[in-house]
Structure formats: structure tokens, C-alpha cells
């Protein structure tokens, strides 16, 4: 997308989403769309570290859950409003991302992936034993009864998630086209060579883990209001980590558009499947699509489309 | 030229796969439904961690629908169940119930199985003032305080305390009176709640708590935990565990030779036939909670007929072959709703809610009356003891006397055999 066109389109999307909440009465579509947009944020966040930098993070669910539990803590302590929850969740998850990066970025490949998985277990154990946020028993979160401009809270949450998704994609796109993005790509292609060429690899990787963690935490911040009952098992659900990886892989990891396409496609397919076919097949969709795309289109849908266009032009 | 062709084929193959997936998803959905039936909508765990329970509950509900239709339906209309798999994942629940109400336009709604799958649906029910029947949720309404929520598990008006009331009431009758208590449970929702109740009872009975620990749900070796309990020499051991832990703790207790006068309390899983037949005589002496057992005192009208129908199809459905624990209650919670509809001749939720609050219902699990918070007005968490288990055959668990009821007094069918081991 041309640089000038991106932000006007993004703003138009947000306005359209808000307009939709005023026109469409059926709430089901907002519940479903919220989940899809949440995955847009998660997939985009994962791709900043996994796609741009080449470091596979299996701990996405942990960052998401930290965001969600940060919200729970602030709601219980101060009854804080949603914008504050989002900012705080982003800050805390970003700090955890930074710390995780500092401790684990000496590891590479599968070892780094295992370390992020371990992080999820450590954080889940911590939350399980923190009684203030419900501990292992979980906790109830009551939605505010009224919200300005919207006639239901889920419509408000949908609009908020649309803003977050657009912001996350905008950040990913900016990174991709910046000096930082080129540095991350150099690390992905050959870290030693990048270091030799003067790329400050550790600093860039720390930036990537921080931004990625922040966005994942931000995605989790409104979740307690969406689900109204939060327990560690569901907040740290492995499906978040699996989807955060599968969606960019299917869409394509090289560009900001890949995770968006993957999340929209897979997220929508899952939402449709949940209310149509049995869920054994629903879960199968993720697996089959992932295997299919890895074999048929290793660079994802975006990569395949680009290749096809390039070949078309050559002819 | 060849490579270009290959790319093209790949692109078409992918496009084809996507189209087939989308069309398939739409085509395999629930078929066209007649406009007439009264539709009861719900999400149920048919896959994921709670699937075993969810599938058994669904089977019981299908039997209710069949029974109701055979008897002429409700308000002269057939009953149809409209359900989706929540995959044991709370995140799916809000979407499922919104679809049920706004697109499928069901007339009545009931919950899926378990606290964390009931709670996410509550705000939706509250915003539409709908009667919502809950299936085995623990203290869900404590926070929501919703007038039209009713829960079928017989935990009682104060679920946390009522859950272990039987264990501690019985402990008081032991001679000599026990003085020390060990409490152990998983780091998970049910166990934590049950342990809170156990502590409160211990305090009231002036029992000294000599061991009070939780363990991570993924624990596989329970020997160190049981050894640590043994070292404190407790008179009573209260366990609040999930099915895999219950088996692990019980095996470890037998191997180590745990000595206590009463052992058990809140062990989930010992109610399931699959676990009973795995443990066999190891179960003897265990004192545990339950909701229904084949004892003469609990021979409610309709229960045997229901169980006969359930057991006839349970094998093919791959669910608990006896179905004593959850299925009768899954049948009952829709039975209550059906009786309310028939009695009021209405589908108006305000009228239904008021009726359910003010009346007693005859169900296959006995008479059910709801309190102000939607829980059973009086607890009927049974305390039972495994006695005379000789081997691992399934048949012996269908006989009266294999699990005698020790509490509440109204339903007692035997006497406590103690100590567990000395």
C-alpha cells in the first residue's frame, strides 16, 4: 500500500467500524469481529519478533495474559477506565518483553523458543498463586453498565479493538520500512554478518521483544471485559500462542500485511467453524491450513500473490 | 514455462482449498430447522478438557428432549436443542450465546458445563433479562447477583461451605474426637474454593490444621505430597482434587500406607465409572462427596428409567457408562425449565423466573427448590463411603451398598466404617 494511502485508509476503517456499531443491531457480529481483530493484534505483534527478526516466540499467550491480568489488578484496585488499562497493560508487558529479551536473546533457534515457553509457565504459576487477581480460582469482572456513544459494551470493545488493530498494524508497517526494520531483517538473514556490519543486534532485538510484548499485552487488556470471568487456564491458553504463530505463517511473515491476511482468514474461518461444524474439524482447519501453506506457499499468501504478480509482469 | 505453470497450479489449489473450506463450513452447519419447535440453546464442551463431562451432559439433554417430545412437547410444540461446541474455552462462550439469541433466536437458554463456561454468558443473559439455568457452576452468582440465574448442582446456598459440610459434620461424630487436619488440593478453581470451605469448618470445629498446601495441576508424582502429609500425622485428611490428581493421590496413599481416621472429602473423579473400575478395592474406606448414588434412599421417581435410557446409549457415545454423577442433573436442569414452561404456559422469561423462584420441582434427582441466589435452597452434597469393593468390575458399582450415604441425615443409607487406616 502506498505510504500516503495507509493512514487515511486506517482512519476510514476506524470510522467505518464506529459507524457499524451505530447501524448494526446484531451483537453477534461484534463478538466475532472482536476475536478476529484481537488476533490481528497478536499476529502482528508476534511477527515483529518472529517474522522480521527470525526469533520464534512460543510465549505469546503469556504476554496476552499479562495484559489481561494487569487489567484485572487495576480494575480491582482502582476501578481504572479502559484506556488506562490498555496503557498499563502495554507498559507492563513491554517491560516483561524487555526483561525476557535481555535474559534469553543469547539463545537462538529452538532454544530461544523453549525459553519463551518457559516464561509462559513461570508467569502462569505466578498468577495462579496471586490471590488478589483471583489466583487459581479465577475472578469475575463486571462490565460497566453504560458507555458513552455506544448502546452496548461489546460494540465499544469492538471499536476499541479496531483502533488497537489499526495501531498495531501501523506500528509494524512503520518498523518494516524504517532503519530498525532493515536492521531486524539483517539479523534474521545472518546475525553474525549483521553484527560485523555494525548493526547493534542486541539493542535491536531488545527493541523488537519490547514492542512485540507491548502489543501482545495491549491485545489482552480489554479481554477481561470481553469474557467477564478470567482464570489462568483460559488466559494462558495455548491456542493464543498457536494462532499467533500460525496466522503470520499462513499470511506471510515478511511484511506487515501477512499477519493481517492470516489473522483475518484463519480467525474468520475459526469463528465460522465454531458455530457451524464440529470443533474437531474446527481445530483441524488450523492444522490443515498451516501444513497446506507451508508446503504450497512457504512465504504465505502475500508471498505467493507477489510471486504470481511478478511472474505475470515478466510475461 | 514449467515453473510458471507450477505456481499457477499452487495458487489454484490454495484458492480451491479455501473455497471448499468455506462452503464446507457453511454446508455442514446445523440443517434447516422447522419454525415451530421451542428451541433450547446452549454451548457445551464437546472437545477440550471438559469434553467427557460435556458429551455426557448433552446425551442426557437429548434424552430429555426425546422424552418431552414423546409426551407431546411443551405448550403443544416440539422441543429442539440448538447447541454449539464451546471447546471448553470461555473465550468462545459470549459469541456462541449471542449467536443463539440473535441469529438462531432460541426461546430458552441453558448453560454449558462448569463455572468458567457459565460466567462469560452471564452479562448477555442479564442484559436481556433471560432465565439462565446453570450446570455445575460454583458460586457464579456471588458477583453477578442476577435474579434469573438458577443452578442445578446441589451445592446449596453457600456452595463453598456446603461442599465440605458433610465431611466435617461426620468428623465431629468420631470417637475419640479428631484434633488435627491436613488439607491438600490442586492450584485450580474448584480445589481452591473447596479448601476455603474446609478451612472455615476446621476453624469452627477447633481443629488444628497441620498441613495446608496446594500443588500445581500438572503434578504427576504425588508420593512426596502424601509423605509430607503422613509426616504431620493428621487425624483427618481433606483432599480437594481433580480426576487425575485424585487417582494419583489415592495410589500414593496406598503405596505409602497413609494413616488417617478419615480420608477424602472433595475428590473429583471418584464418581466416574472409568476411574472406579481402574482403582477397584483401593477405594474402600474413602469418604467422598457425591451427588447421586444407587442407594435405596435416593431412589427418586424417574431416575432409574432415565439411567436405563442413558446407559443403553452411553457405550456408543463413548461417555461414562453408568452416568450417576452429571447426567441426571443435566437432565434435571432442562426438566425444571420444561416444567416451568408447562406450568406457566408461557415463554416469557420474567414469568418463568418468578415461577422457578416460587416453586418446588419434581425431577429425576428429587425435589428441587431454588434459593434467592439461584442455588439449591438447601444443600444436598452427599458424603458417601466406598465399602465392600471386591474387584474392578463395573457391575458392583451399580449395586446398593458400594457407596453408602453418610450425610445428610435425610438420605443416610449406611454407617461410617473407620478408621481409614491406622
Regarding quaternary structure, what we see is: heterodimer
Give the structural class of chain A. Answer: mainly alpha
Output the number of helix runs of chain A: 15
Q: How far is it from the N-terminal to the C-terminal residue of chain B, by CA?
A: 85 Å
The greatest interface here is: A-B, 56 and 54 residues
Question: Could you say which overall geometry of chain B the principal axes of the C-alpha atoms support?
Answer: globular
Portion in helices of chain A: over 70%
SSE order of chain A, as H and E? HHHHHEHHHHHEHHHHH
Determine and state the CATH class of the largest domain in chain B. Alpha Beta
* Tally of separate domains of chain A: 1
Neighbour order of strands in the largest sheet of chain B: 7-6-8-9-10-13-14
Which CATH-level-2 architecture of the largest domain in chain B? 3-Layer(aba) Sandwich
Mean pLDDT across all residues of chain A, rounded? 91
Give the strand tally of chain B: 14
Q: Beta-sheet strand percentage of chain B?
A: 15-25%
Radius of gyration of chain A: 19 Å
Largest sheet of chain A: 2 strands, antiparallel
The percent range for strand residues of chain A is under 5%
How is this fold's topology laid out?
The complex is a heterodimer of chains A (315) and B (422).
Chain A: H1 3-23, H2 28-50, H3 60-78, H4 82-104, H5 109-128, E1 139-140, H6 153-176, H7 179-189, H8 191-196, H9 201-220, H10 223-227, E2 229-230, H11 232-235, H12 238-251, H13 257-274, H14 279-296, H15 300-314
Antiparallel strand pairs in A: 1-2
Chain B: H1 2-27, E1 38-44, H2 51-70, E2 79-85, H3 93-102, E3 108-113, H4 115-118, H5 122-128, E4 132-135, H6 141-144, E5 149-151, H7 159-172, E6 180-186, H8 189-204, E7 208-215, H9 223-231, E8 236-241, H10 243-256, E9 262-267, H11 273-279, E10 287-290, H12 303-317, H13 327-344, H14 349-358, E11 360-363, E12 366-369, E13 382-386, E14 403-407
Parallel strand pairs in B: 1-2, 1-3, 3-4, 4-5, 6-7, 6-8, 8-9, 9-10
Antiparallel strand pairs in B: 10-13, 11-12, 13-14
Amino acid at each position: 500500500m502506498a505510504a500516503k494511502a495507509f493512514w487515511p485508509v486506517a482512519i476510514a476503517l476506524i470510522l467505518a467500524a464506529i459507524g457499524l456499531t451505530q447501524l448494526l443491531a446484531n451483537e453477534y457480529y461484534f463478538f466475532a469481529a472482536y476475536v478476529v481483530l484481537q488476533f490481528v493484534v497478536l499476529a502482528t505483534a508476534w511477527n515483529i519478533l518472529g517474522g522480521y527478526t527470525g526469533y520464534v516466540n512460543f510465549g505469546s499467550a503469556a504476554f496476552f495474559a499479562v495484559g489481561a491480568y494487569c487489567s484485572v489488578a487495576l480494575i480491582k484496585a482502582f476501578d481504572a477506565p479502559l484506556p488506562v488499562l490498555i496503557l498499563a497493560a502495554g507498559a507492563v508487558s513491554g517491560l516483561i518483553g524487555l526483561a525476557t529479551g535481555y535474559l534469553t536473546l543469547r539463545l537462538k533457534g529452538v532454544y530461544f523458543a523453549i525459553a519463551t515457553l518457559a516464561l509462559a509457565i513461570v508467569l502462569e504459576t505466578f498468577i495462579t498463586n496471586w490471590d488478589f487477581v483471583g489466583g487459581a480460582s479465577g475472578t469475575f469482572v463486571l462490565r460497566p453498565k453504560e458507555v458513552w456513544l455506544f448502546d452496548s459494551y461489546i460494540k465499544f470493545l469492538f471499536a476499541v479493538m479496531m483502533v488497537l488493530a489499526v495501531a498495531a498494524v501501523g506500528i509494524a508497517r512503520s518498523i518494516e520500512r524504517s532503519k530498525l526494520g532493515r536492521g531486524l531483517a539483517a539479523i534474521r538473514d545472518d546475525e553474525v554478518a549483521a553484527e560485523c556490519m555494525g548493526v547493534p543486534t542486541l539493542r535491536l532485538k531488545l527493541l523488537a521483544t519490547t514492542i512485540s510484548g507491548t502489543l501482545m499485552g495491549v491485545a489482552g487488556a480489554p479481554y477481561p471485559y470481553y469474557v467477564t470471568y478470567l482464570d489462568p487456564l483460559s488466559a494462558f491458553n495455548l491456542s493464543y500462542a498457536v494462532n499467533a504463530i500460525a496466522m503470520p505463517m499462513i499470511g506471510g511473515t515478511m511484511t506487515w500485511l501477512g499477519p493481517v491476511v492470516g489473522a483475518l482468514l484463519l480467525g474468520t474461518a475459526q469463528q465460522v467453524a465454531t458455530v457451524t461444524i464440529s470443533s474437531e474439524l474446527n481445530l483441524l482447519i488450523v492444522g490443515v491450513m498451516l501444513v497446506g501453506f507451508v508446503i504450497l506457499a512457504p512465504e504465505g499468501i502475500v508471498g505467493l500473490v507477489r510471486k504470481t504478480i511478478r511472474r505475470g509482469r515478466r510475461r | 514455462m514449467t515453473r510458471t505453470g507450477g505456481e499457477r497450479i499452487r495458487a489454484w489449489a490454495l484458492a480451491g482449498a479455501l473455497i471448499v473450506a468455506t462452503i464446507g463450513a457453511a454446508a455442514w452447519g446445523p440443517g434447516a430447522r422447522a419454525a415451530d419447535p421451542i428451541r433450547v440453546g446452549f454451548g457445551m464442551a464437546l472437545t477440550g478438557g471438559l469434553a467427557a463431562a460435556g458429551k455426557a451432559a448433552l446425551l442426557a439433554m437429548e434424552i430429555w428432549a426425546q422424552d418431552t417430545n414423546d409426551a407431546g412437547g411443551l405448550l403443544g410444540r416440539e422441543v429442539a436443542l440448538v447447541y454449539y461446541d464451546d471447546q471448553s474455552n470461555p473465550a468462545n462462550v459470549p459469541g456462541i450465546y449471542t449467536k443463539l439469541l440473535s441469529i438462531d433466536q432460541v426461546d430458552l437458554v441453558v448453560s454449558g458445563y462448569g463455572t468458567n463456561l457459565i460466567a462469560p454468558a452471564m452479562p448477555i443473559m442479564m442484559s436481556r433479562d433471560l432465565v439462565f439455568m446453570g450446570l455445575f457452576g460454583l458460586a457464579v452468582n456471588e458477583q453477578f447477583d442476577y435474579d434469573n440465574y438458577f443452578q442445578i448442582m446441589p451445592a446449596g446456598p453457600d456452595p463453598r461451605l456446603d461442599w465440605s459440610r458433610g465431611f466435617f459434620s461426620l468428623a465431629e461424630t468420631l470417637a475419640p474426637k479428631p484434633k488435627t487436619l491436613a488439607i491438600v488440593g490442586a492450584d485450580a478453581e474448584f480445589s481452591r474454593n473447596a479448601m476455603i470451605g474446609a478451612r472455615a469448618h476446621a476453624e469452627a470445629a477447633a481443629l488444628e490444621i497441620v498441613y495446608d498446601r496446594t500443588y500445581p495441576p500438572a503434578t504427576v508424582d504425588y508420593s512426596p505430597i502424601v509423605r509430607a502429609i503422613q509426616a504431620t500425622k493428621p487425624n483427618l485428611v481433606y483432599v480437594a482434587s481433580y480426576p487425575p490428581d485424585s487417582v494419583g493421590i489415592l495410589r500414593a496413599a496406598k503405596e505409602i500406607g497413609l494413616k488417617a481416621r478419615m480420608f477424602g472429602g472433595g475428590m473429583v473423579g471418584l464418581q466416574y465409572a472409568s476411574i472406579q473400575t481402574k482403582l477397584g478395592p483401593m477405594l474402600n474406606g474413602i469418604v467422598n462427596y457425591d451427588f447421586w448414588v444407587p442407594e435405596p434412599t435416593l431412589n427418586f421417581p424417574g431416575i432409574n428409567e432415565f439411567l436405563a435410557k442413558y446407559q443403553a446409549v452411553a457405550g456408543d457415545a463413548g461417555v461414562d457408562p453408568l452416568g450417576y454423577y452429571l447426567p441426571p442433573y443435566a437432565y434435571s436442569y432442562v426438566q425444571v425449565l420444561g416444567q416451568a414452561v408447562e406450568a406457566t404456559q408461557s415463554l416469557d422469561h420474567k414469568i418463568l423466573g418468578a415461577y422457578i423462584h416460587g416453586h418446588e420441582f419434581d425431577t429425576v434427582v428429587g425435589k428441587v427448590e431454588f434459593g434467592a441466589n439461584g442455588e439449591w435452597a438447601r444443600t444436598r452434597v452427599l458424603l458417601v463411603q466406598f465399602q465392600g469393593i471386591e474387584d474392578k468390575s463395573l457391575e458392583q458399582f451399580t449395586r446398593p451398598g458400594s457407596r453408602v450415604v453418610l450425610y445428610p441425615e435425610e438420605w443416610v443409607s449406611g454407617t461410617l466404617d473407620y478408621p481409614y487406616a491406622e
